[in-house]
Design goal:
about 65% helix, transport, lipid transport
Amino acid sequence: MPICIECGEHSQNIFTNKKAISTCKKCNKKMDRYYEVNNTLLLIDILLLRVEVFRHIIHNRTIIRPFIFYTTYFISRVVFISKYFNLYNTFSFSLILKLIICAFIEMGLLVLFVSFLNKFMLSLVFNTFIITSFYYLFVYFMILWSYKELEYYVLIEILVMLSNSIGLSCISKCSIEYMFIVIGMLKIPIYLMYYYVYLK
């Protein structure tokens, strides 16, 4: 169901009969101003982690070809972990397979726990995690520019956790801080799992 990106109020539709954007009955602002802006401004607001743009993407937009999003996420995650643990020297097919399995387990743990904790639909939480993990794409720039310092990877992970938290707060009544703590607590066993794979 569409929502007002300003206040989060649900509505039957975003557009009026004249194809104009509806006004929210609660806050008296346009339901979704992002239908009037170009993709460049949309991208800037995504990078700035604005709550309104997350509401727009999660609630008011239909993802075209979601498989591309899913594939991109898992590939980016495997590349990120590979760079994080500096696994390129010992790369093998079995290691790639283990990392892919770990990435699936990670997503499963996050989705199941958050869904259980907040009584969300699994598909909604899964899509939210995938959409809001776009900062993992920055790892490709780090490969191109040969960044090897650990703090850059930590920064990307924090940005991903923050964008996940904002996205999850958009589909729930929970605060961003609460979701950030929950995701942070879940990341501890996940990184222990990756470390175990790394040691093996």
